[in-house]
Amino acid sequence: MPLTLLVARNPDPDSSLPYLLRIPLGDGLVLRARETWPRTSKVYCHRHDAPWPDDADVVEEVPLTECRRRGAAIDVVADRRREARSQFVLTRARGREMIFWQTAKVAKAARPNIDLPTARAGGLEDLEIVVDTRERYAWKFSHQQATTTKRALDTGDYGAFVDGELVAVVERKSLADLAGSLSSGRLAYRMGELATLGRSALVVEDRYSSIFKLEHVRPSLIADQVGECQVRWPTVPIIWAENRALAQEWTYRFLAGAVQEHRMGEAARRILPAANEAE
């Protein structure tokens, strides 16, 4: 019987993972997934708690030449010349299973040939980063000298406070999420909200060049929309951080810099009245 990887739409409209995958392994391993193939970045997957639906809305059938379990990974080879090899990596973090779908090219790109620094940002002993309660699969900042707490933010995914005042926020996007938000118009509203804050940024976990590898949207249209957003809201920089690790590092340094800048401004405001009185 020929091997086939089936890709269908997730019948649950409220799920953040819009696709179902049926991997021809044993009786069939069914996963929920963010994307239909790991073209530009790792795709997060989760086990589906129900069997493959009889009335599945199949969007793609990928013939396979190989589907084999190798330890903690499942190797999948599509019967085509391009984008043929991929791998599902099954691991555990904080006591729960996590599944990532990747290609060799994506895995290599996700490991830049650099060592991230461990020095404190801005000389701060410890930076508290507030993570929005709606942020799923949040950054941990485990490599940085920072602690995280969960709290609802009016806008943005990560923020820094000083004496209860929000001094900076960062909105995080994967390339797929960015493209979807631009196409739907949601990003325009979010950029407008970010622009109302004194210090804010949008950080993308990918390279700018990856825009032109997108397949389900017109790359030039996405590039145009990115440029228009930056022109319309110039106070909100769009940072292309190459991958998740560098996106976290940039966000850590940005938020620490904002805290330091705010504290210096407060100190200057306290000194000026005293200097005027002395005169």
Automatic annotation (TrEMBL):
Gene Ontology biological process terms, A to Z: DNA metabolic process
SUPFAM superfamilies: Restriction endonuclease-like
Region forming the signal peptide: none
Ranges annotated as spanning the membrane: none
Record-annotated ERCC4 domain positions: 128-208
InterPro entries per UniProt: ERCC4_domain, Restrct_endonuc-II-like
One term of GO molecular function: nuclease activity
Protein name per the record: ERCC4 domain-containing protein
